[in-house]
What we know:
Blueprint: H1 8-14, H2 21-25, E1 26-31, E2 42-47, E3 52-56, E4 69-73, E5 75-77, E6 80-81, E7 97-98, E8 103-109, E9 114-118, E10 123-128, H3 131-134, H4 137-141, E11 150-153, H5 169-186
Antiparallel strand pairs: 1-2, 2-3, 3-11, 4-8, 5-6, 7-10, 8-9, 10-11
Amino acid sequence: MATEPETPVAALAAEPAVPSLVDRYFTRWYKADVKGKPCEDHCILQHSNRICVITLAGSHPVLQSGKAIKSISYQISTNCSRLQNKVSGKFKRGAQFLTELAPLCKIYCSDGEEYTIYSCVRGRLMEVNENILHKPSILQEKPSTEGYIAVVLPKFEESKSITEGLLTQKQYEEVMVKRINATTATS
């Protein structure tokens, strides 16, 4: 018995979607409730060459509820600006060294809220994304690609251990389910 030919739409739906560049080359790690602040989650994209790209997790308040970003500042204190980071040479001389809780930038929203974004991994600061200073909306529109916060290079000896305090994609999804269940139980 002959089967009917598939429609082009059905054939396209049956084909698996091509993974994005980020999904193909990076492993996603998450830090939930950074510094004890609820829902202020960060996402760390770790490449196979151990470089880490610091981004906001999808559940971060800046990406939720239509918040408008007024400005972003890499000026951490009067004496420390992440924009002054100048890296050169094979051994990355001049890079600022970061701890897990080193602030990278501050995001100021139009509703008066202020969010500090932290490194979440130990290593050398390779670069900060200056594009988000001029166009803060890309932080919300494309948080995993053009809207990244910074690039950090962990020490080679520590590259395996940097993920010890971080959550995998599956663990993070479980945290999100618990949050949703907790909020629905209280309301």
